[in-house]
Amino acid sequence: MSEPGAPAAGDKAPRLQDRVLGGVRWGRLQEPLGFVKVLEWLFAIFAFGACGSFSGETGVTVKCDGETKEMSAISIQFGYPFRLYQIPFEMPDCEGESETRTLHLVGDFSAPAEFFVTLGVFSFLYAMAALVLYLRFHSLYGENKKLPIADFCITVCFAFFWLVAAAAWGKGLTDVKAATRPASLIAAMAVCQGQEVVCNAGATPAMGLANISVLFGFINFLLWAGNCWFVLKETPWQAQAAPRDSAAEQGAIDKQ
Predict the structure, then answer these.
(1) What is the sign, positive or negative, of the torsion defined by CA atoms of 8, 12, 13, 19?
(2) Does residue 186 contact residue 60 with C-beta atoms inside 8 Å?
C-alpha cells in the first residue's frame, strides 16, 4: 500500500505537463513581438514548401515528313532543385527508322532555389525556437540583456537574406520559365529545323506554385524587416533612449 499523501505514479505525467505548460505566457502571442513570430513561422513553411515541392511538365510534338509517319509526343518532367541540364529527353530522328537521340534541357538554377529553401528552413527553426523563448522563458529574455541584442541582430540578418533570396529566386524562376517553354525546346532540337518536319508546342508548364513561392519570399522579407522594430524595443539601446526622452520632456515642462 502506498503511504498517505504520496503521489501516485499516474500523477507524474500530468504534474510534469503542468510544470512545462504552466509557465507559458500565451498572452504574448497577442503582443506584436509574439504575433509576428507566428507569422514568420507560418510563412517560412509556405515559402520553402511551395518552392521545394514544385514540379512541372513541358513538351513538344514532332511529326516527320510523309503521311505514314506518326506524330511523336515528347513530355519532360522537371522540378526542384531545377538542375535542368540533368533532365534528359528523347528526340526522334526523322532520317532513321524509329531511332532517337538523347538530349538534355539547358541551364542550372539550383543555386537560388536551394538558397531560398534553405533560408526558409532556418527561418522556420529560428522562429520556432524564438517562440519557445518568448512564451516559456519570458523572464530570462527580459533579464538577460544579451538575448534581445542577439535576437535583433539575427532578425536583421534574416530580413536581409530574405530580400536577397526572394530577388535571386525570382530571377532564377524567370530563367527557368524561359528554358522550359516549348518554344525553347523546339529551337534547341535539330530535327525541328528540317523543312518537312512539323514541330508544335505540347504541354505548357504551370508555374503558379513557383510564382507563389516568390511572393511568399517577399512577404517573409516584410515580416522580418518589420519585426526589427519590435525586437529593437526590447534591447537595452531602446530602453536607455526612453528615460532620456522622458527627462527631456520633463525639463521642457519645468521651464514653462
Answers:
(1) positive
(2) yes
Residue 225 exposed, middle or buried by CB count within 10 Å (0-12, 13-18, 19+): middle
* 3-class secondary-structure state, position 55: strand
Residue 162: closest CA among 121, 105, 203, 210? 121
| Beta bridge pairs of residue 131 | none
Least Cα distance to 234 among 132, 160, 141 occurs for: 141
pTM for the model stands at 0.81
User: What is the rounded CA–CA span in Å between residue 211 and residue 35?
Assistant: 26
Q: Please, are residues 211 and 186 in contact by the beta-carbon 8 Å criterion?
A: no
> What are the residues whose beta carbons fall under 8 Å from the beta carbon of 114, sequence distance 6 or more?
81
- Angle (CA) 147 114 128, round 5°: 30
- Going edge to edge, which strands form the sheet with 198-201? 71-79, 55-63, 198-201
Gap between the Cα atoms of 46 and 50, Å rounded: 6
Read off the pLDDT of residues 22-63 as tens digits, 9 standing for 90 and up: 566 777 778 888 899 999 999 999 999 999 999 999 999 988
More confident residue, 147 or 54: 54
CA-atom Rg of the chain in angstroms: 29
- Cβ atoms of 184 and 202 within 8 Å: the answer is no
Q: Are 180 and 84 in contact (CB under 8 A)?
A: yes
DSSP tag of 102:
E
In this prediction, residue 126 has a pLDDT band, given cuts at 50, 70 and 90, of very high
